[in-house]
Design brief:
With 708 residues, the protein is mainly β. Helices cover 1% and strands 50% of the residues. Among the domains are: 103 residues, no CATH class; 205 residues, Pectate Lyase C-like; 167 residues, no CATH class.
C-alpha cells in the first residue's frame, strides 16, 4: 500500500476546549490544495477511565503517630470497605489531649512500596511507584486531628488525592472534502516513565509535586480512536491512561496507525510518530493530547475510650490541567503564502505556541495585492520563544500593505514572550476588536501599531529599526516599562485616540533616558514619562535635553565616578531648553548647567527636590515651580548649608509663582545678575522686600541682588 508522505507530525498537549492552532505546510505528495493542521481539544466521546473514584475505592493503608514520631499508632494498617463503612483489625483508641497525625495510601496491594525511614508528622515516607501499564491509580491523603474529649467519638475523614497524571488522546478529521474519512488505531506512548518516587514526608506535600524518575520506560496503550471518522468529527482513543508526573523537559514519543479513505476505498495507511515536549504533567491533573489530521500531516468517669474509625469523604476529582503549550518541533521553513491572495497567512493560531527558540520563515514568493501575515492569532493566544523572519517575502502590486509578522485577530488576551521579529513591515498589528496585548522580553524590528480598542503593555522590549520601517504608532492606551528604542526609531503619538494615554517607565532611547523630546506629536496631557534609577548609572546625568510630563526618581544612587547624581544635566551646550510638568526627587541635582555657552533655561509647573544650580552664562525662568528638600546627602559630606535643598543661581534668574519649602536655602554668593521673586512664597509666606531676609533661609544674603 502506498504510504502518504508527511513532514514531522506534532501533537498538541492541552486541556479540553482550550487550544486551536493551524499550520499550513506544503506537502509534495498531496494534491495542491491548502492544507491545515489544527489542535482542537474539544471534548468528544468518553474513553475508559482507569482511575479510582470515591465510590470505587475499597481499601487503603494507614500510618499514624500520636504527638511525635515515637508515638506509633498505625504502621501500614489495612482499612477495607466502602464509603460510610470502612473497618480494620488492629483497633486503636483516641486518648484525650493528644494530637494525631495520619497518612493513607491506596490501593492496597498496588504497585507501590514505601520507605518509612523518612516518615514523620507530615507523611508516611517516600513512595516508590511502578507503572506497569497505566491502569493503576495511586492515591494519598494526610490529616492532623486533635483527640476528642473522653467518651466522644470522632472519625478521621480522608480526602484522597491522585498522585499521578491522567492522559487521553483526541483526533479530529480536518479534511475539507466530505468524502474523506480517517481511521486512527493503536495509539500509544512508547516511552512513558515506568518508575519513580515521591517524598510525602514534607509539610506541604502537595505543593512539592517533586517526582524523581528512573531511566526505565513503559508503553502505555490507549487503543483505537475511531473508525472511518467523517469530516469535522472528533473521536477519543478508547482508553485513558495514568502516568507518573514529569517535568516539561520530558519528551514523550507517540505512535499511532492511521488510514485515509476516499469513500469506501482505502487510499493511504501508515504508522506515524510524533513527540510531545515542553509540557509539565502535574499530579491530579487530566490532560488531553489533541490533534487534527488532514492533508498536511496525514503524518472523662463512667466514660470509655472510643475507637479510632476511618471514612473516606471523597477522592478528589481529576482537575483539568491548565493551559498547556504546543512546542514547535523544529524550524518551520517551507511555509508558503498564497500568491495573489489578500491577507493570507502561513500559520493560524489560537492557544499557546512555544517555538522552542526556532525560526518561522516563509518561502520566497510574491504576495500581490494585499497584506501577508506570517501568524494570524485569534482570541486568547500566547506566543513564546520564537524567531520570526520575513526576509524571503516580496510584496508586489498596486496595493502593498506590507508583511505582518503577528496579526492579532479578534477580541481576547494576547501574550508575546521572548519573540524576535525582523525583516517585516509590521511586527505587531491588529483588527478593531477590543483586546489586551502584553509583550515581554522581545525584540521588535519594524513598525508596531494597534487600534484604539487595544490596551497594550510592553516590558523589556527592544524596538529596532527595520529595513523599511522604524515606527511605534499606538492608537490605544499603552504602558511601556524598561524598554529601549534604537537611535533613529520614531515614536509617533499622533494617532493616540482621544481619552487614551501612554506611559513610559524607565525607558531609554539610544541607550539614554527617554524623554518627551523623543516623542513625535504627543497629545497634551496624554503622556507620562517616568525614570526610576535602580542602579548607579555610568553617567552622572539622567536627562540631557528638554523634557516635559516626566517623573525622575534617582533612588539616592551615587554615580560610578563618586559625583552627585544629576536628574537634568546640560553640559557644554547652548540654546533654549524647556522643562514642563517635571517631578524630580532622590537626586543630588535636580537641574545643573555646566556650560560657558549661552543657555536659556525655562522651567514650569514642576517640583524640584534637591539642588538646582547653573553658571553665569545661563539665564533662567522658573514659573510655578515648587522647590523642596530631599535627603540625598543625609549621610554624605555637606557642601553647603543644606545641599538637600539648595538653589544656587549664577546667572540672571526670574522666579514667578514659585514656592520654597521650609529649610530650603537660597545661595546668592555666586549670583552675577539678579534674582527676581515675583509672587513667590517661603514656607507658605509670600516673600516681599521687607520680610525676605527674616522669612527665607539664605547663604550669602545680599539684598542688592533681589528684585520684587
Amino acid at each position: 500500500m502506498k504510504k502518504l508522505f508527511v513532514s514531522v507530525l506534532a501533537i498538541a498537549s492541552m486541556v479540553a476546549c482550550m487550544n486551536e492552532e493551524t499550520v499550513r505546510l506544503q506537502d509534495p505528495a498531496a494534491i495542491g490544495f491548502e492544507a491545515n493542521w489544527v489542535e482542537n481539544a474539544t471534548r468528544a466521546n468518553a474513553a475508559l477511565d482507569p482511575s479510582t473514584t470515591t465510590e470505587s475505592l475499597t481499601g487503603f493503608k494507614v500510618w499514624g503517630f500520636m504527638d511525635s514520631v515515637d508515638g506509633k499508632v498505625f504502621e501500614g494498617e489495612e482499612v477495607t470497605g466502602s464509603k460510610g463503612n470502612f473497618t480494620y483489625n488492629n483497633i486503636a483508641y483516641w486518648l484525650p489531649d493528644h494530637t494525631y497525625y495520619f497518612a493513607a495510601l491506596a490501593p492496597i496491594g498496588g504497585n507501590w512500596t514505601l520507605n518509612t525511614e523518612a516518615a514523620n508528622y507530615y507523611g508516611a515516607g517516600i513512595v516508590n511507584f511502578l507503572n506497569a501499564n497505566g491502569t493503576e491509580d495511586l492515591l494519598y491523603a494526610a490529616n492532623v486531628e486533635s483527640a476528642p474529649a473522653l467518651g466522644e467519638a470522632k472519625t478521621v475523614n480522608f480526602t484522597f488525592s491522585h498522585l499521578l497524571s491522567k492522559v487521553k488522546f483526541t483526533f479530529t478529521n480536518g479534511f475539507t472534502n466530505e468524502n474523506m474519512y480517517i481511521d486512527v488505531k493503536n495509539v500509544r506512548i512508547v516511552n512513558a516513565p515506568m518508575a519513580g518516587s515521591i517524598n510525602l514526608a514534607v509539610e506541604n506535600w502537595w505543593d512539592n509535586d517533586d517526582w524523581k524518575l528512573t531511566n526505565d520506560t513503559v508503553e502505555l496503550a490507549f487503543g483505537d480512536a475511531c473508525a472511518k471518522t467523517a469530516m469535522g468529527e472528533t473521536q477519543v482513543a478508547a482508553n485513558e491512561r495514568l502516568t507518573i508526573p514529569a517535568s516539561a523537559e520530558y519528551k514523550y514519543e507517540v505512535k499511532f496507525d492511521v488510514a485515509l479513505y476516499m469513500g469506501d476505498v482505502l487510499a493511504y495507511e501508515g504508522t506515524k510518530t510524533s513527540y510531545v515536549q515542553g509540557v509539565a504533567l502535574e499530579m491530579g491533573k487530566a490532560y488531553n493530547f489533541s490533534a487534527t489530521l488532514n492533508a498536511s500531516n496525514f503524518t472523662e468517669e463512667g466514660k470509655e475510650l472510643m475507637p479510632i474509625v476511618f471514612d473516606v469523604v471523597e477522592v478528589k476529582e481529576w482537575v483539568e490541567a491548565g493551559e498547556q503549550t504546543t512546542v514547535l518541533p523544529s524550524n518551520i521553513s517551507g511555509l508558503t503564502l498564497v500568491a495573489d491572495a489578500v491577507a493570507k497567512n502561513t500559520l493560524n493560531l489560537k492557544g499557546s505556541f512555544d517555538g522552542a527558540g526556532h525560526t518561522l520563515t516563509a518561502e520566497a514568493v510574491e504576495v500581490k495585492g494585499g497584506a501577508a501575515r506570517l501568524i494570524d492569532a485569534t482570541a486568547d493566544s500566547q506566543i513564546r520563544n520564537l524567531n520570526i523572519d520575513g526576509a524571503n517575502l516580496v510584496i508586489k502590486g498596486d496595493k502593498d500593505y506590507g508583511i505582518r509578522a503577528l496579526f492579532l485577530n479578534g477580541a481576547g488576551d494576547f501574550v508575546i514572550d521572548n519573540v524576535t521579529i525582523k525583516n517585516v513591515t509590521y511586527t505587531i498589528n491588529d483588527d478593531s476588536a477590543a483586546k489586551t496585548i502584553k509583550v515581554i522580553n522581545s525584540t521588535l524590528e519594524g513598525w508596531t501599531s494597534y487600534n484604539p480598542a487595544t490596551v497594550a503593555t510592553f516590558e523589556n522590549v527592544e524596538f529596532k529599526c527595520g529595513p523599511s520601517q522604524k515606527t511605534f504608532r499606538p492608537h490605544g492606551t499603552t504602558t511601556l516599562k524598561n524598554c529601549n528604542f534604537e537611535e533613529g526609531f520614531v515614536i509617533r503619538l499622533d494617532k493616540l485616540a482621544e481619552g487614551k494615554t501612554i506611559k513610559f517607565e524607565n525607558c531609554t532611547y539610544a541607550g539614554r533616558a527617554l524623554t518627551s523630546a523623543d516623542l513625535t506629536s504627543a497629545p497634551a496631557g496624554a503622556v507620562e514619562v517616568k525614570v526610576a534609577v535602580t542602579e548607579a548609572p555610568e553617567s552622572n546625568a539622567i536627562v540631557t535635553g528638554s523634557a516635559s510630563n516626566m517623573t525622575i526618581d534617582g533612588g539616592n544612587y551615587t554615580t560610578t565616578d563618586g559625583k552627585g547624581l544629576r536628574a537634568i544635566y546640560l553640559n557644554g551646550v547652548e540654546g533654549e531648553f524647556t522643562f514642563d510638568n517635571m517631578v524630580i526627587k532622590n537626586v543630588a541635582y535636580a537641574i545643573n548647567v555646566n556650560s560657558t555657552k549661552a543657555v536659556t533655561l525655562k522651567v514650569s509647573n514642576s517640583t524640584l527636590e534637591g539642588w538646582t544650580s547653573y553658571g553665569n552664562s545661563t539665564t533662567a525662568t522658573f514659573d510655578t515651580v515648587n522647590f523642596t528638600c530631599g535627603n540625598y546627602y543625609a549621610n554624605n559630606k555637606v557642601y553647603s548649608s543644606n545641599d538637600n535643598g539648595l538653589f544656587r543661581p549664577y546667572g540672571a534668574t526670574v522666579c514667578k509663582n514659585c514656592t520654597f519649602e521650609a529649610g530650603f536655602y537660597i545661595d546668592l554668593g555666586s549670583l552675577t545678575g539678579t534674582l527676581t521673586l515675583d509672587n513667590c512664597s517661603y514656607n507658605g509666606v509670600v516673600l516681599t522686600e521687607e520680610n525676605v531676609a527674616s522669612v527665607a533661609c539664605f547663604d550669602n544674603f545680599d539684598a542688592s541682588k533681589l528684585v520684587f
